[in-house]
Amino acid sequence: MHPLHWRDTQAQHLTQAGLWQPQSLNEHLQDWARAFGPRIALIEGDQQLSYRDFEHQVCCLAGGLADLGIHSGDRVLVQLPNGIAFARTLFALLRVGAWPILAMPAHREHEIQALCELAEPSAYIVAERFLGFDYRPMAERQLDLCPALRQLVIAGDVDNRGVPLATLHGAVREPEPVDPHSTALLLLSGGTTGTPKLIPRSHADYAYNAMASAQLCGFDRDAVYLAALPIAHNFPLACPGLIGALSTGGRVVFSRTASADEAFDLIARHRVTHTALVPPLVKLWLQAREWDHSDLSSLRLLQVGGARLSSDVAALVTPALGCALQQVFGMAEGLLCYTRLDDPQSVILNTQGRPLCAADDVRLVNTDGTSVAAGEVGELIVRGPYTISGYYRAEAHNRQVFDAEGFYHSGDLARWSADGNLVIEGRIKEQINRAGEKIAAAEIEQLLREHPQVQDAAVIALTDERLGERVCACVILHQPQPITLGALHQHFQSLGLPRHKWPDQLEILHSWPLTSVGKLDKRQLQQRFQCNAEPRQRYLECRVPISADPQALAAALAGHYLPQDLTLYEHQGEWSLGIGSIAQVRLSGTTVQLNVAGQCWSWPADDIPLALEKAAQALPFELWRAYGTATFELARRFHQLADMPSTRPLLQLDIPPLEIRVREGSALIRALQPAALNAAQSRVQELDAECARTLDQSLPRVAQVDIAHHDAARYCRQVESAVAQISRGDYQKIILSRKVPLEGRVDLVASYRAGRLANTPARSFIHHKGGFSCVGFSPETVVEVSAGGAVSTQPLAGTRALGRDADEEARLRQSLYQDPKEIAEHAVSVKLAFEELQPICEPQGLGVSEFMDISRRGSVQHLSSRLKGRLKPGCNAWHAFAALFPAVTASGIPKREAIAAIAEHEGGSRDLYSGCVMIADSDGSLDAALVLRSLFEDHGQAWVQAGAGIVSLSLPERELEETREKLASIAPHVRLLAVETQRAAEVQP
């Protein structure tokens, strides 16, 4: 009998038995809205929706989707993170009769393209950005690659193509009539080959899946479910998850991630009663609970599934979190097993429970298909009221895994305990369970073999305390040329593979160990390499709610930790403060050096980006953030000019033992030691209360700063000389600067607060190391590189003052647009930046996304453009940095000749001025701010500095005036230490 025929014969019986309801999922939502109308259904951040409002929004969105041309039977690819937009989109598609294909936010081009080829969706609904990844370029490429794809809908801002999800508000219309036995949605299977398989779940079986689970798990009208795992997974969606909670009148709270700092706050704030995790996250929550004291008293039940939870970890859940534990074994294909709420502890700690439904027909069989004896291990096969009878468009595979009696052969190995519960013992086919994500070894092996240096590959799972299992790539190379883990990461990035599938460990072999029958012996590989990965120190984390302005609190924190070495870096709404240094990466002399706890490693600096990547990979910390600087004179190294004398490294990155990241509403504290974490938490809370109740007590402005006349005559002579050199063809453009000294000792924090209030920078920072300090309000970034390899730079060239009022600002802006000198200066800067990106970026997608806009920066306005691209395979963030550093708007064109001439005209080192302050993360991202509009202090000597771009049309007086305009962004806001504080500072050793 074909499995579909078995399912058909059961449909009437299942309906008569009450297991299947004669309703679609949309009709269930309508019933829930009528029954629970004013009750809160969904919570995301500050947004709350009642059942009635949620159902109304679903109806309006369904109308908008229908107006867009999405109809019954259409497949629609949905890739949205946890949130109300996901729930609204899911049910709106169900209302119009379309089939949502639920992709994970972690999926990248490799999987998305395969899904498009398999399912031929007519529309793709995707987030604009999530956790730093920009989905739009990937989504736009699918429009070009997939003929069936007609519509791109973006949850967020739309760039060039697509429709904003927020604008889809159509008229409420009658829902499409839907057969409850028909397909409702398509879930994704982890699989064992890596090829995506789609799991068609019907309205009837999926409603039963969720509603029966809700009843078994004790959900009721008072249930508050925290959706912490990615909601597109079957587990948090319908086991009982989102759908199960809604069916009982409960509420669902969405968490962007499952990190303890975010989840604990939501549990405490919303009195969460139920949530679900995978085993690696359970370990992280238990570790976090050692120092976190959030109120988790409302939590009644923690479900754990996705992999087997060890009994020793299971035993820690209730004492640490104060809630009951429920072990879950399930599959998106159907079968769900739960330990029961009243099971004895021995069952809960040591088994994965028993089937949800008495009608689940579960057998354990040997390779011959014969049932194994009691207590023996066999392959789990199943059929039942909510187990599928075939994958979507996968006939060949269906013949392999569904037998004539309708049983699905899962590939899972299990045994029955004496009390009738399942104990899962592993998989028949090789699969790596990395932090709950199933990764097919065969898929990674095949992609490794596509690397030009790799002859053969084997991928194994190694036990990992944090991840559960980590991915170890064992390779044999064509030639004995070195290959790095970073190079393989670039390879997988270029293939569009998500980060969680990249190997965590690399081992190079000359031949394979073989079994007695000549097959590759992966067990030997596992035994050999299990201990090869050095343990990396983890940051402890906690998140503290704050009520103060984040800028004010961040500055106050910097003031508290000074005079310790620190860097405060503002970017994208976050003030990130790194305090102290536990490890340093330095470019000095002919090597890149890594120093950790007195140990030193070095790499030749003949290839600086590669050496920096190797040093970063060798850092013995997990999820680190480095805070660093690069002096302007690093540019001489990049452009083969002789080094200039300097007391500081050309480039230095510091890994802090303590960092605090402040944004609106919360501060994330990360420390390597519990005592430092606790002390910082207390300090954040104290300063938050203080900032919230006191007004800014700024010190008086610094006394006269002669930005108008100091060194003016000399500067004009330099401009004249540079124009003469440009006229004879030595170079096209040069930026010349002048210093203006300050009297007295600078109050770094008060200067930062005053300057930040008066400026609108792209980035801002405080940097203090040893006797050197810098406070800056950067008008532009040198380079921004995302973890996914997206590169961006924003050259600013062409300047006018803002003026005294709106009318004068408009007049000056118009003169800027009409000034041929300024326009020419800007155009050549954009052209050079494009040419610098070409060698390191893929040709498709490299271009100018903004051109000749106006950016307001403090007291001035600039012509502004932005260029974007994506790194080529083999290139990392440091290649992008090397290509663009120094910023064209702070050096000149061509850069080499301009850099040499700057030293000639200015007569010395610029040091950090027109270099950069930056942060770099362990995921490969990099953000480097150009050091302009800055205040400097070196061992008690303070100054401000500004420059102007010189081209053939430049006039000395106009360029001098431009330096005055720029200095006005910082000089009037400098604050001095009080006299008694200055004296104390002067007598310090």
UniProtKB/TrEMBL annotation:
Keywords of the record: Ligase
Domain (AMP-binding enzyme C-terminal): residue spans on this chain: 443-519
Q: Does the keyword ATP-binding feature in the UniProt annotation?
A: no
Do you know which InterPro entries this protein is assigned to?
Answer: ADC_synthase (IPR005801), AMP-bd_C (IPR025110), AMP-bd_C_sf (IPR045851), AMP-binding_CS (IPR020845), AMP-dep_synth/lig_dom (IPR000873), ATP-dep_AMP-bd_enzyme (IPR050237), Chorismate_C (IPR015890), Salicylate_synthase (IPR019996)
Catalytic activity, EC: 6.2.1.61
Q: Name one GO molecular function term.
A: oxo-acid-lyase activity
Domain named Chorismate-utilising enzyme C-terminal is located at 713-966
Query: Would I find Oxidoreductase among this entry's keywords?
Result: no
Gene3D superfamilies, per the entry: 3.30.300.30, 3.40.50.980, Anthranilate synthase, Luciferase, Domain 3
Which residues, by range, are in coiled-coil regions?
A: none
Identify the pathway: Siderophore biosynthesis
Q: Which residues belong to any copy of the AMP-dependent synthetase/ligase domain?
A: 30-392
Q: Which reaction does it catalyse?
A: salicylate + holo-[ACP] + ATP = salicyl-[ACP] + AMP + diphosphate
What Pfam families does the entry give?
Answer: AMP-binding, AMP-binding_C, Chorismate_bind
List the PANTHER family.
Answer: LONG-CHAIN-FATTY-ACID--COA LIGASE, NONRIBOSOMAL PEPTIDE SYNTHASE PES1 (EUROFUNG)-RELATED
Write down what this protein is called. salicylate--[aryl-carrier protein] ligase
